[in-house]
Write a structure and sequence with these properties.
Layout lengths: L7 H11 L14 H5 L10 E3 L6 E3 L3 E2 L12 H15 L3 E4 L2 H10 L8 E4 L14 H14 L5 E7 L9 H16 L3 E7 L3 H10 L5 E5 L12 H8 L2 E5 L19 H16 L6 E2 L6 H12 L6 H16 L15
Parallel strand pairs: 3-4, 4-5, 5-6, 6-7, 7-8, 8-9, 9-10
Antiparallel strand pairs: 1-2
Helix pairs in contact: 1-7, 3-4, 3-10, 5-6, 7-8, 9-10
Amino acid sequence: MADRKVTRRQFVRTGAAAAAGVAAGISASQLSAAGKKKILNYNENMEYRRCGKTNLMISAVCLGGHWKRINVMKQDFGKNRHDVVSRCIDAGINYLDACCRSEVVAYSKALKGRRDKMYLALSYCGKETRNKEYRTAKKLLESLDALLSESNQDYTDLWRITCFEPGGRHTFNTSCELVEALEKAKKQGKARFIGFSSHDPRWIKMMIEYFPEVEVICVPYTPKTKQVPEDSLFDALKACDVGFFGIKPFASNSLFKGDSSPGSPHAEEDDKRARLAIRCILCNPIITAPIPGLISIHQVDNMAKAVKERRELDLAERTELEAIMDETWANLPQGYQWLRDWEYV
């Protein structure tokens, strides 16, 4: 990566050139019967989308690693995660994202004996580039090795390094070290595919345009998110053929009235809100899939139902969702005000 040292003018010019000439993706509706057989954990009731240049076909809704409010379920944690993963597999969901040590260890246990049913993406956020001690390729690879060993995994389907917020706080040298680590992990067979996560739209756009090695990004995306008319991140994602997973589709649960507990008086309303949000997000053909954190088999079933429902929202539904999202934005916790940065990207 030493030869990456360039002037700003060279940097911009080279990045633009790297983004050119990428082939278009294939929609799920164009798949042949033979193609469907190649989809991991295929279920005829689930929709699948091409994940950029990885060419993986991913379920239109996936399982995010966070388990917020799981305490309201009043059940054994390990059993809960096992049961939720089982229901995801039954529904044809084939992708699971875990972004910290505890999540990776927990889901590795939940997947034991059926690792071939789901793609597993992972990150060790505490020992990656947010930590100043882990900003070299050598240290990042040590972190990955330690996580794979602790979770009893020989490899990960996607290693997506967790970056600073905003990502622009990283030096360009750190960006180069990050990509070098990703490349080496892929060459060594420790990661089938590679990418990163960030909450910084401008920095993400720079990274995917300058580094064609990046195959996947994991970033915020809510029903409030809209494309800017020019120089949009979505345009760059399409041009660079990068897979795109959306976190926080429910704005860190600010979308909901209830607490997800069994028998909640707001359960029916919250289920409807969740489906409206997912349907809205999936109207964007650029996104591979949203990855909500799901804490019950009921929530898994509700997501599967959202995928099967009519995709386009009618006028009444759009009006309803706009009001819900205005309410959601008003209820955003102080620690999640940064989601507002993802209204226009």
